[in-house]
Automatic annotation (TrEMBL):
InterPro entries: Endo/exonu/phosph_ase_sf, Endo/exonuclease/phosphatase. This is Endonuclease/exonuclease/phosphatase domain-containing protein. It comes from Acacia crassicarpa. PANTHER family: ENDONUCLEASE_EXONUCLEASE_PHOSPHATASE DOMAIN-CONTAINING PROTEIN, RNASE H DOMAIN-CONTAINING PROTEIN. Pfam families: Exo_endo_phos. It comes from the Eukaryota. Residues 5-150 form the Endonuclease/exonuclease/phosphatase domain. GO terms for molecular function: catalytic activity. Signal peptide: none annotated.
Amino acid sequence: MNLIAWNCQGLGVALTARNLKEECFRRKPHLVFLMETKQKARVVRKIRRRCGFVEEWLVDPVGTSSGLALWWSEELTVNILFSSSNIIHTSVMSTSLSTPAYITFIHAPTDEGDRLLCWQEVRRIKNSIMTSWLCMGDFNDILAQDEKCGGLPKAWRKILNFKCFVEDCELEDLGFNGPCFT
């Protein structure tokens, strides 16, 4: 299964929408997760159609920030099990999967207190899963100082909080594809 997760920081910019369309046609993903769409449903739906997807789940932005979009191809059956402003938790079936795969899409808040609440919700989700599980998105946190570029170093307390979250949920960093720090 081919997936794309992108913190697009606004789908209203023509270049962003064009780049997304090009990536979708080049990589042919089965599922696309977009963070910070910053657009109402009608704009996101128009871009979804241009990218060749029929199915969707949207979380509207708050004012001019945030917003999530999940698009998937017709060959998948996606059931939304939980949705909030930062999390979309799903069960995914396809002809190639004998059992459902659980995928949790995350766009963690930048505020530390809100992020810790988000981690608690993901821990709760983890406790309900007894089979394969993938978490993907923008966690707005780092596991080591070398994952940060410029600015002041991240407080060790924050790094340790994120490490504890990753360990509690038995997650493994799979890395990424593309330029660093994007």
